[in-house]
Design a protein that fits this description.
The complex is a heterodimer of chains A (136) and B (262). With 136 residues, chain A is mainly α. Chain A has 4 helices and no strands. In chain B, the strands form 2 sheets. Chain B has a 5-stranded mixed sheet with strand order 2-1-5-3-4, covered by helices on one side. The chains are: A mainly alpha (136), B alpha+beta (262). The interface between A and B is medium-sized, with 20 and 26 residues. Chain A: GO terms for molecular function: metal ion binding.
């Protein structure tokens, strides 16, 4: 008499890949989150509360701010940290909720493409901003 | 036994006529999510009126249903005293051991009728009624190497450990592998192969054991994409554990060990 078993062997999971990627991304979320609290709250305070808030924002105001490397650096780090922080968060959400491998793959591709586009466009504007364009 | 279940020839597990209702018993509705793979395509709810004493356990109610109402009800239980970890199920929506939940804690306020819902633990394939296939759970358990790993010559005497070293992993030695924690974890419900809290708890038990030398192997395994970094610290596992293990804390300790190793 032979043993009739559905699963004669236990399923195997792939061997550990010895990659620290998930560790790094977990750590990045914590550190960038802390940095973003300062960067974003500071940004919101300057833009919306200080000195008349949104009503004084115009081309000249932005041009004035971006003439200083400090604010250029502030906005650039905010752009990169927020985009990668949010993108990585969405990556984990997709990993958790996508049911099919193909759905997961295409959602992630869309996410990565949008991240690259936004980072490239944002960095391009900050680095090549020309305050001498006549404001309308 | 070749004939179908009748009153003369009851289904396996049935014990004949209903016993007299004890004094002080109230009738509660036990609503069970049932599934018979031979006839059902979807699980269905079925309700039973069961006389219950406040001091009864939910397991007693299930026994009553199986022994005196419907002998086809299928569930696991072994010791019935919260040690073997066989009867994990979703009771009123939370994962508990049926042998550790008392009816008096589930009774409706005032004189309102009481309904107790019982469903199989979530995220594992249901074989029948409350009986689930534990293999995915056990596979994750085996994958973290839950046994003593040592290298070099074996000592001639027993492996000595100080009380403080033993205390380090005391909490995670309490696990009874009931799967309450793992099947309460939203990440485990997903179609992935996340190890789940129970496997990490059992890895923790050896990673922090001063006599064990396999910590690096286990940390490598848990450092993977399906390892501890998928934990979202929802604390469902800590809330579900019938042994009171601080499961989320154990997972965080493994994360910290990974962060600061070497």
């Amino acid at each position: 008499m032979t043993l009739a078993l559905d699963k004669p062997r236990s399923p195997r999971r792939p061997a550990a890949r010895r990659s620290n990627f998930e560790l790094a991304s977990w750590l990045f979320m914590r550190i960038s989150g802390l940095a973003l609290i300062v960067l974003v709250l500071g940004h919101l305070f300057i833009m919306n509360i200080l000195d008349g808030g949104v009503h004084r924002i115009n081309f000249a105001f932005v041009a004035g701010r971006w003439s200083s490397p400090f604010w250029q650096f502030w906005d650039l780090s905010m752009l990169w940290l927020a985009e990668i922080h949010g993108g990585n968060g969405l990556r984990t959400v997709i990993n958790d909720y996508a049911r099919k491998d193909s759905t997961r793959f295409w959602l992630k591709m869309m996410l990565y493409v949008s991240m690259v586009l936004i980072l490239a466009l944002g960095s391009y504007v900050i680095f090549t901003f020309d305050p001498d364009i006549p404001a309308n | 036994m070749t004939t179908a279940a009748t009153t003369e020839n009851p289904a396996s597990g049935a014990r004949g006529d209903q016993p007299p209702v004890p004094e002080g018993a109230v009738t509660v509705t036990v609503k069970i999510l049932r599934f018979n793979p031979e006839t059902d395509s979807e699980p269905r709810w079925e309700s039973f009126g069961v006389p219950a004493l406040p001091t009864d356990r939910v397991l007693n109610l299930l026994h009553y249903v199986k022994w005196y109402i419907d002998g086809t009800l299928t569930f696991r239980r072994s010791c019935a005293h919260g040690i073997c970890g066989s009867d994990a199920m979703q009771i009123n929506g939370v994962n508990r051991l049926a042998c550790k939940v008392l009816v008096k804690d589930l009774l409706a306020k005032g004189d309102k009728p009481t309904t107790i819902t019982v469903a199989p633990i979530k995220g594992l394939p249901v074989n029948k009624d409350l009986l689930v296939d534990m293999e995915p759970f056990m596979e994750a358990f085996r994958a973290v190497k839950p046994f003593l790993i040592t290298y070099g010559n074996e000592p001639t005497r027993e492996r000595i450990q100080s009380a403080a070293d033993r205390e380090r992993f005391d909490d995670t030695t309490k696990c009874i592998l009931c799967a309450c924690c793992t099947t309460s974890c939203p990440v485990f419900w997903n179609e992935g192969s996340y190890f789940g809290p129970a496997a990490i708890v059992n890895a923790h038990r050896f990673i922090f054991d001063s006599r064990d030398e396999g910590a690096q192997e286990r940390l490598d395994i848990l450092n993977d994409a399906e390892g501890v970094w998928r934990c979202r610290t929802t604390f469902n596992c800590t809330d579900a554990c019938p042994r009171g293990i601080q499961v989320t804390k154990a997972i965080q300790e493994v994360k910290r060990a990974l962060l600061f190793r070497r």
